[in-house]
Design a protein that fits this description.
single chain; about 80 residues; 6 helices
Length: about 80
Amino acid sequence: MGARESLHRLIDDLPEDDLPAAERALLTLHAPAQVPLERAPLDDESDDDDFDGGLTEARADVMAGRVVSHEEVKRRWGLE
């Protein structure tokens, strides 16, 4: 019996309550970098300039219309 068949048999014999844990374990083998990102907690830190490196100011600039489009930046730098 090959490894794939053995794994199928093991999965088939698992109690229903253990299937989510088995799925998580197999997903980490299938896409190891993706799984932790999908389960990472949302960022709930405050957005102040000391913490976010200017993100609050950048968001305020966008809301006030003080922005330059990507296309305009490329034009200014001769990258069209």
